[in-house]
Amino acid sequence: xxxxxxxxxxxxxxxxxxxxxxxxxxxxxxxxxxxxxxxxxxxxxxxxxxxxxxxxxxxxxxxxxxxxxxxxxxxxxxxxxxxxxxxxxxxxxxxxxxxxxxxxxxxxxxxxxxxxxxxxxxxxxxxxxxxxxxxxxxxxxxxxxxxxxxxxxxxxxxxxxxxxxxxxxxxxxxxxxxxxxxxxxxxxxxxxxxxxxxxxxxxxxxxxxxxxxxxxxxxxxxxxxxxxxxxxxxxxxxxxxxxxxxxxxxxxxxxxxxxxxxxxxxxxxxxxxxxxxxxxxxxxxxxxxxxxxxxxxxxxxxxxxxxxxxxxxxxxxxxxxxxxxxxxxxxxxxxxxxxxxxxxxxxxxxxxxxxxxxxxxxxxxxxxxxxxxxxxxxxxxxxxxxxxxxxxxxxxxx
Amino acid sequence: xxxxxxxxxxxxxxxxxxxxxxxxxxxxxxxxxxxxxxxxxxxxxxxxxxxxxxxxxxxxxxxxxxxxxxxxxxxxxxxxxxxxxxxxxxxxxxxxxxxxxxxxxxxxxxxxxxxxxxxxxxxxxxxxxxxxxxxxxxxxxxxxxxxxxxxxxxxxxxxxxxxxxxxxxxxxxxxxxxxxxxxxxxxxxxxxxxxxxxxxxxxxxxxxxxxxxxxxxxxxxxxxxxxxxxxxxxxxxxxxxxxxxxxxxxxxxxxxxxxxxxxxxxxxxxxxxxxxx
Amino acid sequence: xxxxxxxxxxxxxxxxxxxxxxxxxxxxxxxxxxxxxxxxxxxxxxxxxxxxxxxxxxxxxxxxxxxxxxxxxxxxxxxxxxxxxxxxxxxxxxxxxxxxxxxxxxxxxxxxxxxxxxxxxxxxxxxxxxxxxxxxxxxxxxxxxxxxxxxxxxxxxxx
Lengths: 398, 277, 159
Description:
The complex is a heterotrimer. Chain A is of the alpha+beta class. Chain A is built from twelve helices and 16 strands. Chain C has one domain: Jelly Rolls. In chain C, the strands form two sheets. Chain C has a four-stranded antiparallel β-sheet with strand order 1-8-3-6. A four-stranded antiparallel β-sheet of chain C has the order 2-7-4-5, with no helix packed on it.
């Protein structure tokens, strides 16, 4: 996305295949280092998975050794553990607690600064300047980024800061070779195959040689792929990559029946299940922090001690906090029950009215990182199994 | 090259013009942009007003002194609104907007219009009243019903008296309680609805006030035969960004900042009666 | 129009035209008008005072009545005004039959007073009449209760 115009292909780089969008190449494992180097040379800040503090987190990647080679994750409701693999796969795990939203939609961001000038004040604004290259974006994450694109760029008002970060964003996707214990991207039709929204997509092939099938997804991807040592993919290579994805699709840890889910949840806003889940929910907001599509923020205005300089910051917020819905001296959603209901009905139902798609990509993070193991797929199934307990009628949207 | 639209999250600088004290805790301010033209607005829309270093608050536009100003009526109910009520003429205030949906003054042409306001709710309705009265011949019967806490808490009293003097508008006011100096109605707005004669098939009702008052008013209008798609409310929820990206103002599947604040009642009827939605 | 007097036939006609008695049978109208008499109140005069016996209830034909409560050291607080077509008074229905507030005419007011003891005894004798009266009174009382609750919430006050 966006680099093709600037790049000149060095004359001494050998390319064996003619590269177009959709082209499939094969590169050796070590060639990933060249990929990182090429992106860094293009002044991207290359971010990818690393192991830190017992989890796989996204951080700056400079060397291939920074990646979690030989690691996998064991995930279940309220459980996350890393384990050593018996092979040296670089991407042999699902997703960690973070998503790419921490870079595209940062947890804290200064929107502008105002300086007093006599009786008046002047506003100054800095636009973000970092160009991000993401290495290892899963299919569910590609969909999550597309969902947030709709939220921030698809309405009447664009989020200019998000726009400037997305404009210059290089995406290297990875097709999952292993599903996580809480994954249900198949149910949400968000994976496991990366089919759109990337510049390059990798599928890890662990055969006699450790290689990657490299799919070119954009014009910008062509320019970068042309700088790597590669060979054209053979039908055997393509079949091997396809079978990786097929195997992953069959390993989903969870499933969620999405048929009619919008009407189901909107007709069951008084279902007793909300009271039941509220007895377990701590309203700790973990799920909203790890969720790759949750976008709620608050705006805070601060001044320095002399009241001369004022700063407006935007920070992640969560509908689980008590004062999220503060109005006229109190909160609209006082009970945990109402806040859990808000989160889940927004994610699976209202989002469809608002943005045309589900808000959930089936990554399973909310299940894994809930301290009490609340499982969104279980909650949806519970309501689906007793829809009359809600005693409502389906409604239309706004 | 056309001028770029200002970043909707950046407050534009406005200068405070006239300030008028309406009630002990409520003022009306005129604000005009320090540079450039004032954006156009529709009755019912709101701006985010910023007091330097304190914060922002969503305030409905309650009028326009001229083509280059906004008029806002603000009540002191917290740190930000309090700071704004204490601004003096010449002070600088930040303004983002206008945002939101407006009252259906255009589609109301040809119908009778009933304005029903409670307390400070008369302020967001006032631009719609101005518009309708300025184009009087395009509308049928005009009725304005207004409830306040007490006679001394009655907003825009002088203006209400002027409207009442017109022969083509029916203005009825009531207060929750009064002393013997008050010779008007004492009671609630729904009771006024029962007293006023109007054609329930022809009327379009525009309601603004505390949510409880709007609920009771909607019931009284429904009892009087006004259909749910002929009733409009102005909803209120916590607002931070006002552009539909912070999530705070959600009311069911709607964002009050962009699908509202003015909403047609039938579209929200089911969730309107629900608790903690 | 009769300014004074309690000629039964004339009052029966006036009662039948009052919205409260819409749908009342001729026989019941006659029974009720036997307890009725005309009243006229100048502005500022009281229909009744708190704690006095609730001897009659009133149907307002014309004018406005303010219901108010007096507290020591404070000016009276008006909590409701009632006008043409409306009913004033419910304490006559239940023991100890004493008014719980003052009712003051705020302008020249004409009303029909229905003697409470007279009407109560007729309702005891004819339960159909009693039921017809209750059917009309109850919706009014419920509306007043709902309005009172809304006033109690002080929705326009500051949180």
